[in-house]
Amino acid sequence: MLTSVEPDVIRVLGDPLRLKIVTLLARETLCTTHLVEETGAKQTNLSNHMKVLREAGIVETEPCGRYTYYKLRPEVLAGLSEHFARLAASARAAAGNKRACP
């Protein structure tokens, strides 16, 4: 049960292009132009994906002249990672538990 994790974060990261963007931003802060070059996505498509990532709280923007830079909010991913680590620990501990059928 994922009650302590915002369901939008999981849904948002389920898209292959958004996951690629997050992977790129984990290495460095990039502007829209860099992201278009790295992903091969059209600028309008990329902008739509960046909006989704911003609204989910995964990335934040940093204006720089006429460019917008994007950087990852690592605390969001760390929270997600911690939640899944707790689920894995719970699953390990419960490996021998089996509910009997009626």
Describe the protein in words.
The chain has 102 residues and is an alpha+beta fold. The protein is built from 5 helices and 3 strands, in the order ααβααββα. Strands 1-3-2 form a 3-stranded antiparallel β-sheet. A hairpin with a 2-residue loop joins β2 and β3 (67-72).
Structure characteristics:
59% helix; 102 residues; elongated; alpha+beta; 3-stranded antiparallel β-sheet; single chain
Question: How would you summarize the topology of this molecule?
Answer:
Elements: H1 7-13, H2 16-27, E1 30-31, H3 32-39, H4 43-55, E2 59-64, E3 67-72, H5 74-93
Antiparallel strand pairs: 1-3, 2-3
Number of helices: 5
Low-confidence stretches: none
Looking at the chains present, what oligomeric state does this protein adopt?
single chain
Structural class: alpha+beta
Helix content: 55-70%
Estimate the strand proportion.
5-15%
Count the beta strands.
3
SSE sequence, one letter per element = HHEHHEEH
Summarize the structure.
With 102 residues, this protein is α+β, with helices and mostly antiparallel strands.
